[in-house]
Design a protein that fits this description.
heterodimer, A: 429 residues, alpha+beta, 12-stranded antiparallel beta barrel, two-stranded antiparallel ribbon, 9 helices, elongated, disordered N terminus, B: 97 residues, mainly alpha, two-stranded antiparallel sheet, globular
Chain lengths: 429, 97
């Protein structure tokens, strides 16, 4: 048991090794300059990306006489083909070794200068001087490659999704930076003795993502997310207070159908179709709507993260957000809802523009988002809704945080006006 | 240039292509999702770019991928992504001896 734990710990530490490492780890003197030592390079790669030695076929010594085991593993790209001893982790290690070595041989990594262009299998078998990679130095010392520590990403997947709004349910947890910019569910209870009121808030949407086999090619997708969303804000005045009692209680359910289509390597399209049935528990109205949302994804321009300072990956990134929306609906029950009594039908057209800023520094786990939604009421009231949120994340996966949110305008779902400050513990999953 | 080097060249070219270039700094240890801010949508566009570069390379290579490949490689470092692409890439025309 202890041995297994030690082995697992060693594997994690090995993954944390950077590639390429500091020059002192793999470079040797040769003819008045420093060049990469192929044995050291091979050993280092196999420490970082372990390969099961038992999976190495017999007879390799005859094919590659005088070549050590580590280099023989790297030299044979077919080593896992038809090899039952080669597990998935071995195949991944081999892929990572070959990919990393190829970039080094291309001359794309500062500090390492190949003298000729050579395929990895040919390079690794020869002497250090054949197709040598020069380890560059300045007067100050070796030119070390970028990348101090490799941080394995958190594995985050699963079909259950919790967000602040149903509109954000199409973004999965494994899309980490986008996930960081999604709305968060909030539960809070505020006692305000100065204003003389207590406020209870519960806002959020929970969905279950069901992937389909349609549109799989080229990274495209069609996903279904049935969901339930609630928005409850209850204000209770203290005895003798001048504060007014108010309540907003809605519950809605629906199905989000999300498509992603690829036009070119620069442009993709997200289409979200969402039939939604909303119960307004305060005025007993019920609203059935069909919502269509179009989100253009243009690399490096819109709905994609862009570094605030190009060339620096440790400061912050910004994502310009833009989408177009259309919503058509009918109040199936008007209750005492004045908007429903005025006009049972709803047809709105518009979109949302905004910005998401996320910190790329692990020491400053902040994110900020601001957006303005405008929907022209071809039937029913116009919608104008501003919302901004600043969050300090409490965990590395950005599931929980402390958020300050200001929102003002007509809500997209009910068209009722709100003007709110909320500070509280927020979460998404 | 062999298949693996052609793939490495295509991937590094895409990483360096404006707008929104991720390289420099040319860091092989960065992870496509967590570090380079790719999501499922933008990584699919990125891989489409790699596929187009390989198709127009000399010799040409065919790289076809599906959604599962995109999702799996959000957690890949640059080096692992290149190795994974190699496993799904074939020569566009049969090699003649």
């Amino acid at each position: 048991m202890l041995a297994a734990l030690a082995a697992a710990h060693a594997a994690v530490l090995a993954q944390d090794l950077p590639f390429p490492p500091r020059q002192s780890e793999i470079c040797v003197d040769s003819g008045g300059q420093r060049i990469v030592d192929k044995r050291k390079l091979a050993r280092y790669l196999l420490t970082k990306f372990p390969f099961n030695a038992a999976a190495v076929p017999e007879g390799g010594e005859q094919i590659y006489p005088g070549v050590d085991l580590a280099r023989r593993i790297i030299a044979d790209p077919q080593i896992c083909q038809g090899n039952k001893g080669c597990r998935k982790s071995d195949q991944e290690s081999l892929a990572a070794i070959r990919g990393n070595l190829a970039v080094l041989l291309l001359g794309s990594i500062p500090g390492y200068r190949p003298t000729v262009t050579m395929d990895p299998e040919a390079y690794i078998l020869g002497s250090n001087e054949e197709g040598a990679i020069v380890c560059e130095r300045t007067k100050a010392g070796p030119v070390e490659a970028p990348g101090a520590v490799f941080n394995p990403p958190p594995k985050a997947s699963g079909p259950l999704r919790v967000r602040g709004k149903a509109n954000d349910l199409y973004i999965g947890r494994d899309q980490e930076k986008d996930f960081q910019g999604t709305s968060q569910a909030i539960v809070s209870y505020t006692v305000d003795d100065l204003a003389g009121k207590d406020t209870a808030t519960l806002k959020g949407a929970i969905g279950f993502a069901i992937p389909t086999d349609l549109l799989k090619g080229g990274g495209q997708r069609l996903e279904l997310v049935p969901y339930v969303e609630t928005n409850v804000v209850i204000v209770e005045p203290h005895a003798g207070s001048k504060a007014k009692a108010s309540a907003s209680e809605t519950l809605s359910t629906g199905l989000l159908v999300s498509l992603f289509l690829v036009s070119s390597s620069e442009l993709g399209h997200v289409l979200n179709l969402r039939p939604d049935y909303l119960f307004d528990l305060v005025d007993d109205s019920q609203l059935l709507t069909f919502k269509l949302q179009y989100i253009p994804v243009a690399r490096g321009l819109v709905n994609d993260f862009i570094r605030i300072v190009p060339g620096r990956d440790d400061l912050a990134s910004v994502k310009p957000v833009l989408d177009l929306r259309v919503a058509a609906g009918v109040y199936t029950e008007t209750g005492v809802n004045p908007l429903a009594l005025e006009d049972r039908h709803v047809l709105r057209l518009g979109g949302q523009a905004g910005v998401v800023v996320v910190s790329d520094s692990p020491y400053v786990p902040l994110s900020f988002s601001a957006s303005y939604l405008w929907l022209e009421g071809l039937q029913g009231r116009d919608i104008g809704y501003f919302s901004s949120t600043l969050t300090w994340h409490l965990d590395p996966r950005k599931y929980f945080g402390i958020s300050a949110t200001y929102s003002r305008g007509e809500r997209e779902d009910t068209a009722k006006r709100e003007d709110q400050w909320t500070i509280g513990l927020t979460g998404r999953f | 240039m062999g298949k693996l080097l052609a793939i490495a060249a295509a991937v590094t070219a895409e990483l360096s292509a404006p707008p929104g270039a991720k390289w420099p700094p040319n860091n092989l240890n960065k992870v496509m999702g967590a570090d380079y801010r790719f999501d499922e949508n933008t990584l699919a566009l990125f891989l489409t770019g790699v596929s187009e570069r390989l198709r127009s390379a000399t010799p040409a290579y065919l790289f076809a991928f599906e959604r599962d490949f995109v999702k799996a490689n959000l957690a890949s470092s640059v080096g692992l992504l290149i190795g994974n692409i190699e496993r799904k890439t074939t020569a566009a025309a049969p090699l003649v001896a």
